[in-house]
Amino acid sequence: KSIMDELYEYFTEFKLHAKLRIAVACCINMCGAVHCSDLAVVGIHTRPPKVNHEKLAATCEIPSVIASCPTGAIRRHSDKNINSVEVRDERCMY
């Protein structure tokens, strides 16, 4: 969010000379398509990320979230009544 807060005016007022692709990934495997972007920011976790189940279901497509992890650390929540994901700590590259 802080990156987009700083760059917002460049996108809304067309201050850039050409299109700019920005990607933000949260692990060193770069699952956020940073390899095909003009500007890439890669954060490195020091522990596995925690899932906010309420926000995740409302803001993300669960199959896309699962498919985006190259190590298979993200999987569908074991409780079928919860529309969310779980992070398998042993597979996470944090």
Average pLDDT reading: 84
Return the domain count. 2
Major β-sheet strand ordering: 1-2
Low-confidence stretches: none
Structural class comes to: alpha+beta
Specify the overall morphology.
globular
The second-level CATH architecture of the largest domain is 2-Layer Sandwich
| Overall radius of gyration | 16 Å
DSSP strand tally: 4
- The number of helices is 3
Tell me the name of the CATH class of the largest domain: Alpha Beta
The helix content, as a percent range, equals 25-40%
Describe the structure.
- This protein is of the alpha+beta class.
- The protein contains three helices and four strands; from the N terminus they run αββααββ.
- A two-stranded parallel ribbon has the order 1-2.
Short account of what is shown:
It holds the Pfam family NIR_SIR. The chain has 94 residues and is α+β, with helices and mostly antiparallel strands. The protein contains 3 helices and 4 strands.
Topology:
Layout (H helix, E strand, L loop, with lengths): L1 H11 L9 E4 L13 E4 L10 H7 L2 H6 L6 E3 L8 E3 L7
Parallel strand pairs: 1-2
Antiparallel strand pairs: 3-4
